[in-house]
Amino acid sequence: MFVEGNKIKRKELLRFLVGGGSAVITDYAGYRALLYMGLNMSASKAFSYVCGAVVGFLINKYWTFESKTFSRMEIARYILLYAVSAGVNAGVNKLVMAVVGIQILAFLCATGASTVLNFLGQKFFVFVKKGECSD
Q: What range does the domain containing 95 cover?
């Protein structure tokens, strides 16, 4: 399972999890701060998610997937992935809140769903190295 090419590599998976922790901390801290300031739950979650996404882009581009070159297509694909992922994240957050009403559980479920989507999307769609996928 952890081999070269377009397969999932252990190093990438571990780096994604470690680096993703920074993005999640950014997301959660922003979410709590915005809620504290009186912004509604959905707007707080959406804005904090975008902040986490920026942190995640930088870490995953340069460290996790070691993409050293600049590519407008890479940025466009990342934005598309995160737009889809943000919808999934906010939807799961809202659904879990409606079902169980536990804020931290809703946050963690939303984060888990978007984490899986983001790893697969970045690995196989965004940060694809030359020769692995055609643009």
A: 10-126
- From first to last of its 135 residues, the chain has per-residue pLDDT tens of 444 556 788 999 999 998 889 988 999 999 999 999 999 999 999 999 889 888 988 999 999 999 888 889 998 999 999 899 989 999 999 999 999 999 999 999 998 999 899 999 999 999 987 655 444
In a domain, 87, yes or no: yes
Position 68 in a domain? yes
For residue 110, what are the contacts with CB-CB under 8 A and spacing of at least 6? 45, 88, 89, 90, 92, 93, 96
Identify the CA nearest to 93 among candidates 107, 83, 104, 82: 107
CA 134 – CA 66 distance, rounded (Å): 18
Residue 23 falls within a domain, yes or no? Answer: yes
Q: Residue 64: which of 115, 123, 121, 6 has the closest Cα?
A: 123
Question: Could you tell me how far CA 13 lies from the centroid of its own chain?
Answer: 13
Q: In a 10 Å sphere around its CB, with 0-12 CB exposed, 13-18 middle and 19+ buried, how is residue 95 labelled? A: middle
